[in-house]
Write a structure and sequence with these properties.
Layout (H helix, E strand, L loop, with lengths): L8 E5 L6 H12 L2 E4 H9 L3 H8 L1 H17 L4 E4 L8 H10 E7 L2 H11 L11 H15 L4 E4 L5 H11 L2
Parallel strand pairs: 1-3, 1-4, 2-3, 4-5
The protein binds shikimate-3-phosphate.
C-alpha cells in the first residue's frame, strides 16, 4: 500500500551550504512538524563539532554513525522534516530507507552560485579543507549523481529560503 505524501517524512538533500538546515526549519514550522538536522543531532550526541569528530574519530566512524542515525530517524512514526548532511545520501542504505519511506527533496544550486558561498562555510566543513577549487568542483559534480535519485528537485539559485520553503510546502499538499 502506497503511503500518501502528506503522511511521509520530508528529507532534504543537497550539497554543503545549499541551505538544507535553514529551509528545513522553515518547512517544519509551516507544517507544524518536528525538525531534525542530522549534523546538529550528531554534534549533540558526541558533544563536539563535526570538524572535531572527523579529526578525533575519523570520517569512517562519522559515516557509520550518520547512517545509523538516519535509518533510525526515518523509521520513527512521528512525522518530521529531516535535513541530511551533504554526504549522507551517498550511502546506499540511506538512499534506500529515505526513498522508500520519505519524500526526498533535492535542493540544487549552480556551481557558479555555490562557489561564492565557499568562504562562508569552508571552516566548518572538513570535506572541503586542504583541497583546491578544482578538487572541490569535482566533488560537487560527482555528488550530483547521487542527488539525482531524488523524488523532487528545487533549484535554489537566488531564491530566498522563505520562497523555497513555501514551494516545498505547496508541492506536498
Ligand atoms: C558533509 C556535509 C556536512 C557534514 C559533514 C560532511 C559532506 O553537512 O555532514 O561535514 O560530506 O558533504 P552539510 O551538508 O549540512 O554541510
Amino acid at each position: 500500500i502506497e503511503i500518501p505524501i502528506r503522511e511521509k517524512n520530508i528529507v532534504l538533500i543537497g550539497f554543503m551550504g545549499v541551505g538544507k538546515t535553514t529551509i528545513g526549519k522553515l518547512v517544519a514550522q509551516k507544517l507544524y512538524r518536528d525538525f531534525i538536522d542530522v549534523d546538529e543531532e550528531i554534534e549533540k550526541i558526541y558533544k563536539i563539532p563535526i570538524t572535531q569528530i572527523f579529526k578525533e574519530l575519523g570520517e569512517k566512524e562519522f559515516r557509520k554513525f550518520e547512517k545509523e542515525f538516519i535509518v533510525n530517524t526515518c523509521s520513527q512514526t512521528k512525522l518530521k522534516v529531516i535535513s541530511l548532511g551533504g554526504g549522507a545520501f551517498l550511502h546506499e542504505e540511506v538512499r534506500n530507507v529515505c526513498l522508500s519511506r520519505c519524500i526526498v527533496i533535492y535542493l540544487d544550486l549552480s556551481w557558479e552560485s555555490w562557489k561564492e558561498r565557499l568562504p562562508l562555510i569552508i571552516d566548518s566543513r572538513p570535506v572541503l579543507q586542504n583541497k583546491t577549487l578544482e578538487e572541490i568542483e569535482e566533488i560537487f559534480f560527482k555528488r550530483r549523481e547521487a542527488y539525482a535519485l531524488h523524488n523532487s528537485k528545487i533549484c535554489t539559485n537566488d531564491l530566498p529560503p522563505e520562497t523555497v520553503a513555501d514551494s516545498i510546502v505547496e508541492s506536498i499538499k
